[in-house]
Design a protein that fits this description.
By secondary structure, the chain is mostly beta strands. Helix content is 2%, strand content 33%. A hairpin with a 6-residue loop joins strand 7 and strand 8. The radius of gyration is 18 Å and the shape is globular. Keywords: Nucleus. InterPro entries: ASH2, B30.2/SPRY_sf, ConA-like_dom_sf, SPRY_dom. Its main location: nucleus.
Length: 249
């Protein structure tokens, strides 16, 4: 695989299209997810994603002409996820993934555990930006040293087929969420930070930068170190370009 951080050829849905450098991903019709090649279980991390012009107009549906199709709208999710899901579902759909959800001309929302909700806290005190093409989404993650480790899935023969697909559990029997005390996530839009979210909900685990796309959405990953809106050095965030490869491939 590539020596640098990019979207993984393995940890992604087969319907997604990756650019040659594997930093740009284009969605198909239904929800599909792509995880980065590298990950971490502790420390402070940051990456950015650029919202590119969608390719909804290039989608084709058998039995429908372009003129007869109802209006289609691209949606995307950006955030952090453990490999406890199949890649044909969006991140934010279980307790081990956390996402900012967006679409053009809509305000951002949050998702985890299969539920979407509005941003609260600092962001509720001001008007949230309407998302658009060209926006830069910043993703912050703070994880503390784990005090509890999940069992090694390689010791369970029943999980072999999932491990072959790059998944660390049976998606129908995900491990428990043991909270990583003091962990938090934050998102920003074009450098405007939206406040800490998911505090008290983030479990111990190995987290990858991850995205999900729907109806031709298109995103560009920037793992660093050169960012459009870098965090202040005093905050101690590392670029995801410095992450390690997973111990369990």
């Amino acid at each position: 695989d590539r020596p640098f951080v990019c979207f993984s050829w393995r940890y992604r849905d087969a319907f997604l299209t990756l650019s040659t450098d594997r930093l740009v991903v284009t969605g198909h019709k239904g929800w599909s997810s792509a995880f980065a090649t590298h990950c971490s279980e502790k420390d402070k991390w940051y990456f950015e994603v650029e919202v590119l012009p969608c390719e909804t107009q290039n989608l084709r549906f058998i039995g429908y002409s372009q003129e007869s199709l109802p209006p289609l709208k691209a949606h995307w999710r950006v955030g952090w996820a453990c490999r406890y899901q199949t890649y044909d579902v969006p991140i934010g759909g279980n307790l081990h993934s956390f996402a900012l959800c967006g679409a053009c001309n809509e305000t951002p929302m949050l998702a985890t555990g299969g539920l979407k909700r509005r941003l609260a806290g600092e962001a509720s005190c001001r008007d949230l930006p309407l998302l658009k093409e060209g926006d830069i989404i910043g993703c912050f993650l703070t994880l503390h040293e784990p005090r509890w480790w999940l069992p090694d899935p390689r010791k369970d023969p029943k999980l072999h087929e999932f491990l072959q697909a790059g998944i660390l559990c049976s998606p129908d029997a995900q491990p428990p969420c043991v909270v990583n005390e003091g962990a938090w996530i934050e998102f920003s839009v074009n450098g405007e930070r939206l406040g800490r979210v998911f505090e008290g909900m983030i479990g111990n685990g190995v987290y990858h930068p991850a995205v999900s796309l729907y109806m031709g959405a298109k995103l560009r990953l920037n793992p660093g170190p050169n960012f459009s809106f870098p965090p202040p050095p005093s905050e101690g965030f590392q670029p995801c370009s410095e992450m390690r490869r997973p111990h369990i491939p």
